[in-house]
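USER: My hope is that you can spare some time for a protein that puzzles me. I am handing you a single protein, as its sequence and its fold in token form. Walk me, if you will, through where the backbone shape changes along the chain. The protein I mean follows directly.
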Amino acid sequence: MSTAMAKVSSGNSIMAMINEHYPAYHPLLSIAHLAHDPDMDLKGQLDCHKTIAKYVATELRSIDVRQTVTDSRRVIVSLFDDITEVVDAVEVIEYDSVN
């Protein structure tokens, strides 16, 4: 028997033994009951929800998205003049942000 199969069988046997003494017991359900117990303090309730969340919701993680820019475009903004020229160049505009 493989190690993975032994773990599954072992886990099922343990749950079967627990269910002999406590019918319909499930650890996550018990934690959910604790999370909604009015006598439980808020930190305890939060810990219960954190424990259950790992098993019932996908954990979201940030990912780093990088893109290499191989193209350049010039953007011209004018409030008063018509813009008729289109140029494929990059112009660097520097300004002092302190003022």
In short: Residues 3-56 form one domain. The radius of gyration is 31 Å. Helices lie at 3-21, 27-35, 42-56.
